[in-house]
């Protein structure tokens, strides 16, 4: 067993990436049962739901990770919401949606006192953060539970910053990764075109850090795991490969897009987009990304972009269309198969 | 010796990437002498200079590669040239440059009848192309010389397209790579935000192609070479690691930027930019990229952007500033050292 696996409390140095909106305890338990570290994404659920998920995990007596976003929320920007609605106006018209009735909303809540209390109650093996770290006071409380603390870095500078603040390991999130970029040191508006790929980022981090580096982004089969280890990673975090797992809660339109991509990898195209939440995240290119994005400066700050696009997503999904849905996915779908999570974990063990 | 090395006529399955503007026969001979495949970039030199370079290579009796751009030139677009000049106007004013005197120019010439005649005369071991392939007629003439033909793919779709047209091996150019993206199947204006990273692209190509895949992008030391091979690559193409080699012709401002990046890897930031030629190419972020780019839609088509920015580059370089120079470089500068090329080749052998 590697030192990282010992830290994670698992047989394998392999983390199932937390994927807000597409999975919960079912996938996490399946992965932890198979010797990896299952993850519970806290970013898109209420505290009540999170408590229920943690109780579910705790009853399994398996190690697990809970992941929190720790962005700085910004005040609701009504003008920006209306500006984004103006860009979306032709789509509203197409679906007969009355834009005036869609109010701005703040979207997701960051890690908080109340969330921290749940950590103190349930004491997971690992707590991971995205978009930096919470306040020193909250971080100290998390540490006091005995949890191992991880966070994502999208640049070597971010990795060094996290190491200096005492995280136990850094997740080097290469540009290939699906979902939200963890950018936090620089404004994402200037950072996004400079994001290093997994190969470059992992090589740089492994060379410069003294704590373990966990490679993420484009890792979906045994060959890419071997590549990550060759670069100096102590382990890997894998997300997209689990999106078609039986135990994932991936939506029908998302599953359809993933199946199509896996069947026609030469047509599989992803891009970073801010259209769905206000921060850049990687997903399969769909109609709205092609027509107004993938990056559109009219979209409000995180996570206020969601309010304006949500009714379009609902209307399109009601017609089985993913044209307005976030179809999060990394750049390498080689390992994205419709099977049980344990088989996917097995395929990633080298 | 690997099958790819046999094809290249070398001891090692390692190509020194052709880097137009920063190297010529001196670096190529040093690399070929050390058992790699040295390359001669044809894109930025006249046919007379190219002939001299090829004669120089031929006299070494070593295997080598000649690289050509095969873009479709577009007619000179005076209006676009003036539009780009308008964006650059504050910089012209700063340097006291009279913009009206700067005429539009077509920039680089693609592979041609005359260039093909040089291939027929000198018969290099390998001919590689960027931006697709030349016409069938010209390609047949290159093949008839017995040269191995390579070309770059930036997506799996491009790799399959090249394989179908009979290239001997595909260079999988991941997004980490320095210099021009070889994008050719899709317009670069929509393709650039979707470019796959080296890890994802090499994995996909190695899985789907029957011909050898040569990994490029972010590969600059033994660990990244091992990672590329783990992904299924038959060999690697390495550029940036040679930019500080004694035998390279890298300019003083370019060398200064590379030295600074290598000394402070946490501050090393690169981005794709169209400011210098009109097509996206990866370079170290400098003042002009920060202030009007890195991607600016006012820049004319390839390679007409060069005319407007060239006087600023000259004026700044005269003051030892690289603020307006293309500082081509990949995302991983781990192997970028000031030493002889043979030592760099040695460091890449696994």
Structure description:
Chain A has about 350 residues and is of the alpha/beta class. Helices cover about 40% and strands about 15% of the residues of chain A. Chain A has 14 helices and 11 strands. The first copy, chain A, has helices spanning about 5-10, 25-35, 45-60, 80-95, 115-120, 135-145, 155-165, 190, 200-210, 220-230, 250-265, 285-290, 305-320, 340-345; strands at about 15, 40, 65-70, 125-130, 150-155, 170-175, 180, 215, 235-240, 270-275, 280-285. In chain A, the strands form 2 sheets. In chain A, strands 1-9-8-6-5-4-3-2 form an 8-stranded parallel sheet. In chain A, strands 7-11-10 form a 3-stranded antiparallel sheet. In chain A, strand 10 (about 270-275) and strand 11 (about 280-285) form a beta hairpin. Chains A and B meet through helix 7, helix 9, helix 10 and strand 10 of A and helix 7, helix 9, helix 10 and strand 10 of B.
Major β-sheet strand ordering of chain A: 1-9-8-6-5-4-3-2
User: Oligomeric state of the chains?
Assistant: homodimer
Total number of beta strands of chain A: 11
Give the count of helical stretches of chain A.
14
Mean pLDDT across all residues of chain A, rounded? 97
Shape descriptor of chain A: globular
Largest interface: A-B, 50 and 50 residues
The topology string of helices and strands of chain A comes to HEHEHEHHEHEHEEHHEHEHEEHHH
Fraction in helix of chain A: 25-40%
| First-to-last CA distance of chain A | 12 Å
Category by helix and strand content of chain A: alpha/beta
- Percent strand of chain A equals 5-15%
Uncertain segments of chain A are none
Largest sheet report of chain A:
8 strands, parallel
Radius of gyration of chain A: 19 Å
